[in-house]
Design goal:
Layout (H helix, E strand, L loop, with lengths): L11 H20 L4 H19 L4 H8 L7 H8 E6 L12 E8 L2 E8 L5 H6 L7 H16 L4 E7 L6 H5 L2 H13 L5 E10 H5 L6 E5 L3 E3 L3 H8 L6 H8 L3 H7 L4 E3 L10 H20 L3 H13 L12
Parallel strand pairs: 3-4, 4-5, 5-6, 5-7, 6-8
Antiparallel strand pairs: 1-2, 2-3
Helix pairs in contact: 1-2, 3-11, 6-8, 10-11
Amino acid sequence: MDTPTYVLEFEKPLRELAMQLDALRQQSLESNLDLQKEITAIEQKIEKTRSQIYTHLTPWQRVQIARHPKRPYALDYVGMLCEDFIELHGDRQFRDDRALVGGTAFFNGQAVMVIAQQKGRDTKEKIARNFGMPQPEGYRKALRLMKMAEKFNLPVLSFIDTPGAYPGIGSEERHVSEAIAVNLREMAMLKVPTIAVVVGEGGSGGALGIGVTDRVVIFENSYYSVISPEGCAAILWKDGTAAPQAAEALKLNASTLIDLGVVEDVIPEPLGGAHYDPQKAGQALGRCLQKHLKTISKLPVKKLLDARYARYRKLGVFEETLAKV
């Protein structure tokens, strides 16, 4: 397991210990001294520190992991789990949006339609992918592919990873809110099994635009929220630097989403995050998708639609009681 070169603020104690370990190993080689006792002690300290850090993460630290530049992106998981992926382009109205990709593939031998929000690795790709923020044509392309999936009776697998839909002038001129709203309506009525997985960031309507599905699952260190921590901080405290406080207030923990009924499953990640062992994370995702797809694929269309309707109707339900004087 390779240690990622990009180090978050709270991971710096681990980096310092790793540097000490490298120095000891180098000294042992150069001076031909037996330093195995010291090396073992440092290795044990690293494992203990790693466990202490990653088993007590704050909501803001989880957000930072969800945004880690080395974290596997949607197409990384598609490459691990699917065969014969054929990307389909364009919304047939304006242009092709590279922030949102989609196409047919085979998952465990079953034909599926894949819809995925994709970020970029280097500067050139980030610009081409618009930093994973789809525009109206992206959501219209997604809808076109979902309708195609319905026509050919293909389950839909959505991979969510976006800070939000693109809020630029051109996007607003082409009615991004309308495009998302239409997707919400149409996804609620799709006559095929649908599953969404939050692989990184799940921000606002930008995530929901491909997320109205029969099952929603989320990685342990991902987040799914009505707004980003920075956006929340700017509104409530007029200060974007209050993002850690906003993350606490928004309860950006995957386990909280289970309690609220927003997601059905939390996918465990390797200690330190999915970027420490992408293959292991991909295997966990594959098992989770297979389990839920097997369950919902057995339902007749009417029961599938009724269960989907009931799932979203119960979200946000609250009770009122009279205060005792």
